[in-house]
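Hypothesis: this fold can be encoded by more than one sequence.
Test: take the C-alpha cells below, design a sequence, compare later.
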C-alpha cells in the first residue's frame, strides 16, 4: 500500500524535482544575465567618460596649437623688428656684442676667482695634512727612540742576568766538583 502510493507518486516527484532544477538553472541564468548587464553598463560608463576626456584633450591640444602658432608669429615679428632696428642702427649690434663680451668676461673672472679660492682652500688642506704627517713622524720617531731605549735596557738586563747566571753556574760546578772530587776546569 505504501509502496503502491509511492510508485504512483514517483512520476509527480520526478516532475517536481525537474521543475525545481529548471527553476534553479533559470535563477542562475538570471543572475548571470544581471551581472553581465551591470558589467556592460559599467563598461559603457567608462567608455563615455573616456570619450569625454578624449574630447577635452582634443580641445586642449587645439588651444595649445593655437597658442604655439601665436607665439611663433610674435617671435618672428620680434626678430624682424630686431633685424630692422639693426639695419637702421648698426651701433646697437656693437652694443649688444659688447654686452655679450662683458658678460663672458664677468663669467670668466668669477671662474678665476672661484678657482683661486679653491686653490687656496686646497693649499690649506694640504698644509694641514703635511703638518699632521710631520707631527705623526715626530711622534713615531719618539716612540722608536723610546722602544730602542727599552730594548737596550732589556739587552743590558739580560746580559747582567746572563753574567750572574754564568757566575752562579761556575760556583755551583765548583761546589759539586769539590763534593764529588772532580776538578774545576
Amino acid at each position: 500500500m505504501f509502496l503502491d502510493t509511492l510508485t504512483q507518486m514517483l512520476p509527480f516527484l520526478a516532475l517536481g524535482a525537474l521543475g525545481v532544477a529548471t527553476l534553479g538553472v533559470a535563477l542562475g541564468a538570471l543572475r548571470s544575465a544581471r551581472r553581465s548587464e551591470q558589467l556592460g553598463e559599467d563598461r559603457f560608463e567608462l567608455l563615455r567618460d573616456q570619450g569625454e576626456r578624449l574630447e577635452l584633450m582634443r580641445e586642449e591640444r587645439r588651444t595649445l596649437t593655437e597658442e604655439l602658432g601665436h607665439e611663433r608669429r610674435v617671435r618672428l615679428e620680434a626678430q624682424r623688428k630686431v633685424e630692422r632696428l639693426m639695419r637702421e642702427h648698426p651701433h646697437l649690434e656693437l652694443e649688444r656684442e659688447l654686452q655679450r663680451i662683458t658678460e663672458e668676461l664677468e663669467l670668466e673672472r668669477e671662474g678665476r676667482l672661484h678657482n683661486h679660492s679653491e686653490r687656496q682652500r686646497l693649499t690649506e688642506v694640504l698644509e694641514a695634512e703635511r703638518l699632521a704627517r710631520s707631527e705623526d713622524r715626530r711622534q713615531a720617531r719618539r716612540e722608536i727612540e723610546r722602544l730602542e731605549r727599552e730594548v737596550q735596557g732589556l739587552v743590558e738586563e739580560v746580559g747582567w742576568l746572563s753574567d750572574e747566571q754564568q757566575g752562579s753556574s761556575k760556583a755551583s760546578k765548583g761546589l759539586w766538583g769539590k763534593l764529588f772530587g772532580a776538578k774545576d776546569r
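The first helix runs from residue 2 to 88. The radius of gyration is 56 Å.
Hypothesis status: open.
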